[in-house]
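> call design_seq(struct)
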């Protein structure tokens, strides 16, 4: 698989997506995309795209030292 595009959408304190705060990044692999998403997102969603198609939607949940990802 070639490059993977990442769209990171953080959630605000009320649990809604923050307007205009999406971040779009590129990655060399799915593994790198997951790592970049984990580092750059506290709460919210990360969508991964390859060749213009969404391949995954991940939702970061949990708090503090026990965050986890949910597939959406």
């Amino acid at each position: 698989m070639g490059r993977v595009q990442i769209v990171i959408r953080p959630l605000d304190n009320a649990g809604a997506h923050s307007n205009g705060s999406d971040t779009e990044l590129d990655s060399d692999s799915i593994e790198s995309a997951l790592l970049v998403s984990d580092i750059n997102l506290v709460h919210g969603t990360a969508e991964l795209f390859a060749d213009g198609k969404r391949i995954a939607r991940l939702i970061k949940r949990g708090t503090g030292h026990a965050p986890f990802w949910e597939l959406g």
